[in-house]
Amino acid sequence: LQAEELVGIMAERSPEMVIGILAILKAGGVYVPIDPDYPKERIHYMLEDSNVSILLLQHHLLEGTDYQSHTVFLDDPSSYGAEASNLNLNVMPNQLAYVIYTSGTTGNPKGTLIEHKNVVRLLFNNKNVFDFNASDTWTLFHSFCFDFSVWEMYGAMLYGGKLVIIPKQIAKNPERYLQLLKSEAVTILNQTPSYFYQLMQEERADPESNLNIRKIIFGGEALNPSFLKDWKLKYPLTQLINMYGITETTVHVTYKEITEREIDEGRSN
């Protein structure tokens, strides 16, 4: 694998998916995430447009693609039989880390190229407003084709925290997801507003306040702060933060804490 060589990865949310991403990065490559739930036409287009040299995937997903080049199976034990020590190479800050395809406003999806330094600066900078630490538990809830997942995954790992990978079946069920947030004592929750409103509905049915979340970070779509009133009353110490950004600017570019004032005024920026 050459430096900045593009490598496709098509996997369901799983430990193997995260291992595959880290393997590509440590080898100096660039990962191109492909959601196996995408239509076959879109998967074909992304593989062809990116011209990836290798495709990492799980066995059962092979029939969902007509990729003819080199494949590595993430769920095959033989894929993990090589030398386990760190590779003797340096990955530079200005090298590409990933290419995420956005929906594209003019037809076909467009690949957005993001460098390592962008991801590092997202989480470590001289104006950092977060106090993430190794005691935090995060969830990897979103598709790795949505760059909210970049924030979730590296936010946990770069601070030494715990990352709970949420299977698709649980992600689709707010009741089950809420129970997982409680059982895993999740402290950092990243959510689109529309899904969080569903979680709030489920939590209203529980008279106990037994969540451990200390920060809820909203992104991906517009937030209506007035909807958060009941949540703030039940969990007054949980910090509510609204953030905005686009894939091209590496996840987030704005930060706004939502307090009682913003909730009363219905103002999120």
Summarize the structure.
The protein is 30% helix and 22% strand. It has 269 residues and is of the alpha/beta class. It has two domains: 6-118, Rossmann fold (3-Layer(aba) Sandwich); 129-265, Rossmann fold (3-Layer(aba) Sandwich).
Helix and strand layout, with pairings?
Layout (H helix, E strand, L loop, with lengths): L5 E5 L4 H12 L3 E5 L5 H11 L3 E4 L12 E4 L22 E7 L7 E6 H8 L13 E4 L7 H11 L3 E4 L2 H4 L2 H10 L4 E4 L1 H12 L10 E4 L10 H6 L4 E6 L9 E5 L1 H6 L4
Parallel strand pairs: 1-2, 1-3, 3-4, 7-8, 9-10, 10-11
Antiparallel strand pairs: 5-6, 11-12
GO biological process, one term: secondary metabolite biosynthetic process
Protein name: Bacillomycin
GO molecular function, one term: phosphopantetheine binding
Features:
alpha/beta, Rossmann fold, four-stranded mixed beta sheet, phosphopantetheine binding, Bacillomycin
CATH C-level name of the largest domain: Alpha Beta
Strand content: 15-25%
Known CATH architecture of the largest domain: 3-Layer(aba) Sandwich
CATH-defined topology of the largest domain:
Rossmann fold
Give the integer mean of the pLDDT values.
92
What is the makeup of the main sheet? 4 strands, parallel
Number of strands: 12
Class computed from helices, strands and strand pairing: alpha/beta
Distance between the termini: 44 Å
Helix percentage? 25-40%
Strand neighbour order, sheet with most strands: 2-1-3-4
Domains, number: 2
* Low-confidence segments: none
Pfam family, one: AMP-binding
Protein name: Bacillomycin
Domain AMP-dependent synthetase/ligase: 2-257
GO molecular function, one term: phosphopantetheine binding
